[in-house]
Design brief:
The protein has 10 helices and 7 strands. A 4-stranded antiparallel beta sheet has the order 1-2-3-4. Strands 5-6-7 form a 3-stranded antiparallel beta sheet. Helix content is 48%, strand content 14%. By secondary structure, the chain is of the alpha+beta class. This is Engulfment and cell motility protein 1-like protein.
């Protein structure tokens, strides 16, 4: 027997011994009563195939290195990898999962909405732009706890915490708000020379339009506050929250909720379609007539 034939024979022995080890690992990770269910859910040959394919993707340089990779990819390890990939790749495209997402998405959006409104109740300190475009003055705005009035007023300096409602001189009823505009649509961004300033200021600008010509102009301190306030104001007006922050929060919270609800289905394959409806019975003698 030449050297190549010898190594080829050894290579062919690897899958058979691997299958035995995988079956043994599978049996050790489940009770005897659930052993049959284990082999239905994840068959030995499917796991062996995945072990070999994953080991080959590492491009082992020798047979011993290949066998070493296979030993590290035990049955339990394969299950962990599958679960991790399923969680990280967000590959929940089966119809039951999509329907679950549609069902819980309104709850998540309501949670985000309440968080935005709570932040508006806490309030934020904004900088004022004077005629020379210098941000050297401060003003504070916050929503009343009943979500019906915006309180705002000028400040001498940046506050160290929340500013009480009674110290803010001006009020704007939420019912009087006609629209919320952002960026280039803001009145204070349309003024002569305003659009020539840096892009950051333009992206942080938003305005509240009320009555026939009333306006309340904002320059948010950062992108996060900009998203919080535009989301909160749109929520007060009954409109959709469309900021990047809302999309990110929705994706994160929706993903977490889906994962939590799927914990009980670990290692159980979710079917793409519901089970078939059984045929109608030959008679309905078993039905009790209450009349």
């Amino acid at each position: 027997m030449d050297r190549d034939t010898f190594h080829y024979t050894k290579l062919l022995k690897v899958p058979s011994s691997l299958a035995l080890n995988t079956a043994r690992d599978g049996a050790s990770t489940t009770s005897l009563g659930n052993l049959f269910q284990c082999f239905i859910t994840v068959t030995v040959m499917q796991v062996v195939k995945e072990q070999i394919m994953r080991a080959l993707t590492t491009k082992p340089s020798s047979l011993d290195q290949f066998k070493s990779k296979l030993q590290n990819l035990s049955y339990t390890e394969i299950l962990k990898i599958r679960q991790s990939e399923r969680m990280n790749q967000e590959d929940f495209q089966s119809r039951p999962i999509l329907e679950l997402k549609e069902k819980i998405q309104p709850e998540i959006l309501e949670l985000i909405k309440q968080q935005r409104l709570n932040r508006l109740v806490e309030g934020t300190c904004f900088r004022k732009l004077n005629s020379r475009r210098r941000q050297d003055k401060f003003w504070y705005c916050r929503l009343s706890p009943n979500h019906k009035v915006l309180h705002y007023g000028d400040l001498e300096e940046s506050p160290q915490g929340e500013v009480p409602h009674d110290s803010l001189q001006d009020k704007l009823p939420v019912a009087d708000i006609k629209a919320v505009v952002t960026g280039k649509d803001c009145p204070h961004m349309k003024e002569k020379g305003a659009l020539k300033q840096n892009k950051e200021v333009l992206e942080l600008a938003f305005s509240i339009l009320y009555d026939s010509s009333g306006q309340l102009n904002f320059i948010a301190p950062d992108k996060h506050e900009y998203c919080v306030w535009t989301d909160g104001l749109n929520a007060l007006l009954g409109k959709d929250m469309l900021s990047d922050l809302t999309r990110n929060d929705l994706d994160t919270l929706l993903s977490m909720e889906i994962k939590l609800r799927l914990l009980d289905l670990e290692n159980i394959q979710i079917p793409d379609a519901p089970p078939p409806i059984p045929k109608e019975p030959s008679n309905y003698d078993f039905v009790y007539d209450c009349n």
